[in-house]
Specification:
Distance between the termini: 39 Å
Helix content: 25-40%
Largest sheet: 6 strands, mixed
Number of helices: 10
Number of strands: 10
């Protein structure tokens, strides 16, 4: 399966404003890496750049040794990098079933469509009851299940999760992280971008703290969870 990601000295601008300033990180195959930080720190910009939605001004992105810097998002997806975007970005007028099918349109995923859907519905049994329901009428938790399920339909080797717990009730956040732990156990490589710092650091093998577009701290999830500066800034301790 593999799925090693290497980001080296990435710089990104919105006009004259610098969003990412020489950001580097490494994600080993089969591991979970958390990227944490406050609003406006550059987390979503980093995810969008890796996913091919933004083109960096400088720096390189490599996936399993292949340079994918500046690739379009469809090429990045076809290579095996899936994204669960902030805000879910579902096709609200389409049914749950149709949204899942959209995820399997990637050439590498078509032959596995039936098996992938069975896996998703086993992971999220509630979606089985909603297959013919419009995605836009689902609850927030159900929409997040569908967003993750649609991503899994593409048979990714690496998943970029951008604020997956945003807007969810605490009980649903716990359920979500159990699912993420299951994906990790299945050998998927995960990049987890979150403001829910404690939960993400507990599950992460490695972690990076972004502030104003720069990596200011890095280490294992446990190391950052114990770091006094991180605990003060993000956990209120």
């Amino acid at each position: 399966m593999a799925g090693r990601l290497e980001v080296t000295e990435i710089e990104l601008f919105y006009g004259d404003a610098r969003a990412l300033d020489r950001v580097s990180l490494a994600v080993e195959a089969g591991t979970t890496v958390a990227v944490v930080g406050a609003n406006g720190a550059g987390k979503t910009s980093l995810i969008r750049t890796i996913a091919g939605l933004m083109v960096p001004a400088r720096g390189r992105i490599r996936f399993d040794g292949q340079d994918i810097t500046g690739w379009s998002s469809d090429r990045v997806c076809a290579l095996g990098i899936g994204q669960v975007a902030e805000g879910r970005q579902l096709f609200g007028g389409l049914s749950v079933r149709e949204n899942l099918e959209m995820g399997a349109l990637v050439p590498r995923a078509r032959a596995h469509r039936r098996a992938s859907r069975a896996r998703v519905l086993d992971l999220f049994p509630r979606l089985t009851e909603r297959l013919d329901q419009a995605a836009g009428t689902l609850s927030g938790g159900e929409q997040q299940m569908l967003a993750i399920g649609r991503c899994l339909m593409s048979c990714p080797r690496l998943i970029l999760l951008d604020e997956p717990s945003q807007g969810l009730a605490p009980a649903l956040v716990g359920q979500l992280y159990r699912v993420i732990a299951g994906l990790k156990a299945d050998g998927l490589t995960l990049v987890l971008v979150e403001q829910t710092v404690a939960a993400s650091l507990k599950i992460a093998d490695a972690a990076y703290v972004l502030e104003q577009g720069r990596v200011v701290r890095s280490g294992t999830g446990a190391e950052l969870l114990a770091d006094p500066a991180v605990r003060t800034a993000y956990l209120g301790l």
